Amino acid sequence: MDNYSIVGKRIPHRDAVEKAKGSAVFTSDIKLNGTLHGKILRSPVPHAQIRNIDISKAQKLKGVKAIITSKDTPQIKFSISPTWADKSILVDKKVRYIGDEIAAVAAVDEEFAEEALELIEVDWEELPAVFDPLEAMQPGAPLLHDAVENNISKTMTMECGSVEEGFAEADLIFEDTFQTQAQSHCSLETHCCIATCSPTDDVKIWVNSQAPHPLRQKLSAALNIDAAKIHVATPFIGGGFGSKIDLEPAQAICVLLAKKTGKPVKIEHSRKEQFMTTRMRHPTISKLKFGVKRDGTIVAKRAEVVIDNGAYNSHGPAVMAYNNVMFSTLYRVKNIKYEGQLVYTNKNWGGACRGYGDPQATFAQEVMMDMIAEGLKMDPIDLRLKNANIPNEITANAVKITSCGLKECLTQAREASGWIAKKAGKKKYRGLGVAAMIYTGGGSIGSGFNYSGATMQMNADGTFHLLMGAVDIGQGSNTILTQMAAEIMAVEPEAISLTTADTDTTFPCMGTFGSRVTFCAGNAVTEAANGLKQQLLENAAEMLEANPDDLEMKAKKIFVKGSPDKAVSYAEIGAASFYKKKKPLVAHGYYNGPEDVSAEFDPATYRGYPAPAMVFGTHLAEVEVDPATGKVEVLNFTAAHDLGRAINPLLVEGQIEGGAVQGIGWSLMEDLQFENGEIVNPNFHDYKMLTIKDIPRITSLLIETIDPNGPFGAKGIGECAMVPTAPAIVNAIYDAVGVRIKELPATSEKIFKGLKDK
Amino acid sequence: MGSKHRIQITVNQEEYDLLVHPDRTLLDLLRYDLGLTGTKEGCDEGDCGACTVIVNGKVVTSCLILAVEVDGAAITTIEGLHQGDELHPIQQAFVDSGAVQCGFCTPGMILTTKALLDEIPDPSEEDIKHYLEGNLCRCTGYTKILDAVNIAIQQLK
């Protein structure tokens, strides 16, 4: 057992005191003199040609300082990558969903800005619209993007081995179709930004972004501004869950309005705008076919998936690739086929959302696994153990697995939940369900980039300053990354001050997504800290006339092992390096991996998916169903996650508990509902997320597999915590009352109907 | 918009004599006129609880109440709980329990807990959940918030 004094300790979030006092400054709390309020005119119709936009009346309104339309915007389209770019900041000819950006206003206050929007006259020609992806794929369906046939933005086929041969050698074949619904991220803080533009055209934007460095690049590309002239700063961020990764048109609009007026401009989404116009979890239809042997061995599996893209690509093409990778890589199966179609509809666009296509894949696969276990009369956990991934193996789809604790997750969740005893003494209307998962534990270099940088310096007084590109959106990266640095420097974490996520002062970081910050930024920080430690030791060695290898660091002092009375303090080293040697101590760390990308890597399908580590998990739910109403109560919930090493168990539990509850919400009630392209529940009253009244007891099991490449052996956890929740719940509902839910959410109505139809 | 109204309120034990528009919400008054930005706006529709403050001992969602309605009232916001560097035991319990992640719901959660414990010093789990039901949190899954409330109950005994 490693003997660490800071790593592995339950240390509260380092910014929790500020947040608990109400003094933490979020973007919306920033007040700059003379700030104008920006508002966006959005399309009220799902599909229309714009004939003309008349801003003359709005321009005459006192208090209006600038109005912009597509004429003021470079018509450069954007998305996750230039290959898939299809969205303009302000549309020029055509709107494609209710909420599409048409024009924007900056005014002295919100009321003037809103009044101005009402005075802008748009001459429309409404077009037929299509909302169902299966209808949108039919010949003759209205086309959203002229050049995209049948509204299919991307098709993808990947086959490993031969599924036909696999099905032929199977004893039993299982086939079924599973559907998932749109989910909204629901971070409590909506999108907000404040932009300024100096007389020398230097732009600064304070913004709640999960990826400030890529945001600078995206703003630069979309607005045709030199990236060096853009400074992105991130105040405290009120949650993200994927919603704050993309370039949001409001951010580019804010910059344009600031440039045009020369004044600070603030744009803040209302909650309704947040629901209606930021990204959402892609709805999916997954048709699966599995071939199995009587002993439970899966010999072939096939998925045919239709993903509802909404009006624009955003992250859609990559979400589909992840849907494939996670479906294909979970379990040791030789013959795999995945066919995916990403289809445009006249609705809000899908994007990155905690799990990135994996919860949809896992729902389908893990409900199917439950059906297979039933068909084979096999225990569902035993079926999974039979097919579970193992450490140090290259999978059939060429994904490299290093550490892997899937079997430990399954067996420890079984034990902690009392699975065997409860199954044996099954009570009426109560049931247990299990589901497994796989995900990346450190992003991926599939795009060519997976970078995180850090710099650590010693100040003249012997204290430390850590600069990192990584952005803490509430998950606690500032806390755990500082813990890693503190462990290496042998100081308390409070002895290290921080600068983070600021494009002018920190090395770039790809951002907070892909469960990558612990791994990637962690490796950058440990490299920087180890480099600085070496410099400290060399300086101390000179001062003590000793060999650096013989030295020990303790209580902010360095001494020859066994001779603590003859020591130099960190303060003395700091002072000597600054004032005497005139060589301040500073070290950098940078990660951009993994290095060993498989020769089989295919950037279209993500076969050979290049993640630095994979993570595994198991969720196990115990539910009770009320037969009179179909209402589900989740009684107990066990979540086992292979996370390499828990740098901070308190914070890891927080990720798992939050993820599980978000997952239970998606399982049972969260459903962004559309009628003719309009979201009918764009508020917290009608879009139901779980409250404190709805939560079960959650037992988190931290499975420490100590990854060989992770910092202190750690891997990511953030997104993973909601990936297997829905199938665990749905399988438990089946165990309780025999109603098999194949379309999420598992509402009371569906279960009640299932009970009546039995 | 109408003419401004004069109101006198006490916020965090400090007295204010203010002229306010009749349509100014208490939330905007606190955030933009008094600079007390610890009170958060999460939905502006009374659904999320991020803007919770205590008015005359009762929790209110400050986005749904007009400033003119609180004339004469005593208001506590999150900035009024701690004494200098010393956190209120409820704030300390939230910090220690890991109940604070992004922190956007935290002021409202803490103030609702304060109102609960002022009224019911030894609440049942049902009481706690009943009071906190109106405060949404997307990060924590509420588990550590329940831990924090239970620790605060012990600390305040």
What do you see in this structure?
The complex is a heterodimer of chains A (758) and B (157). Chain A is of the alpha+beta class and 758 residues long. Chain A starts with 15 loop residues before the first helix and ends with a helix. In chain A, the strands form eight sheets. In chain A, strands 3-5-1-12-9-10-11 form a seven-stranded mixed β-sheet, with helices on both faces. In chain A, 29% of the residues lie in helices and 25% in strands. Chain A contains 19 helices and 30 strands. Chain A folds into three domains: 32-127 and 188-239 and 244-277, Alpha-Beta Complex (Aldehyde Oxidoreductase, domain 3); 284-445 and 599-757, 2-Layer Sandwich (Aldehyde Oxidoreductase, domain 4), CATH 3.30.365.10; 451-592, Aldehyde Oxidoreductase, domain 4. Chain B is α+β, with helices and mostly antiparallel strands. Chain B has two domains: 5-80, Roll (Ubiquitin-like (UB roll)); 89-156, Orthogonal Bundle (DNA polymerase, domain 1), CATH 1.10.150. Chain B has five helices and five strands; from the N terminus they run ββαβββαααα. Chain B has a five-stranded mixed β-sheet with strand order 2-1-5-3-4, covered by helices on one side. Chains A and B meet through helix 1 and helix 17 of A and helix 2, helix 3, helix 4 and helix 5 of B.
Write the layout of secondary structure elements.
The complex is a heterodimer of chains A (758) and B (157).
Chain A: H1 16-21, E1 36-42, E2 48-54, H2 56-60, E3 64-68, E4 94-95, E5 101-107, H3 110-119, E6 121-126, H4 133-136, E7 152-160, H5 163-169, E8 172-180, E9 192-197, E10 203-207, H6 212-223, E11 230-233, H7 249-261, E12 265-268, H8 271-277, E13 284-292, E14 298-310, H9 316-329, E15 335-344, H10 358-376, H11 380-387, E16 393-394, E17 400-401, H12 406-417, H13 419-424, E18 430-440, E19 451-458, E20 464-468, H14 477-489, E21 496-500, H15 517-544, E22 551-554, E23 557-560, E24 567-569, H16 570-580, E25 586-592, E26 614-625, E27 632-642, H17 649-668, E28 674-675, E29 678-679, E30 697-703, H18 725-737, H19 748-757
Parallel strand pairs in A: 1-12, 10-11, 14-15, 20-21, 27-30
Antiparallel strand pairs in A: 1-5, 2-4, 2-6, 3-5, 7-15, 8-13, 9-10, 9-12, 13-14, 16-17, 18-26, 19-20, 19-25, 22-23, 23-24, 26-27, 28-29
Chain B: E1 5-11, E2 14-20, H1 26-33, E3 52-55, E4 58-61, E5 74-76, H2 89-96, H3 106-119, H4 125-132, H5 143-156
Parallel strand pairs in B: 1-5
Antiparallel strand pairs in B: 1-2, 3-4, 3-5
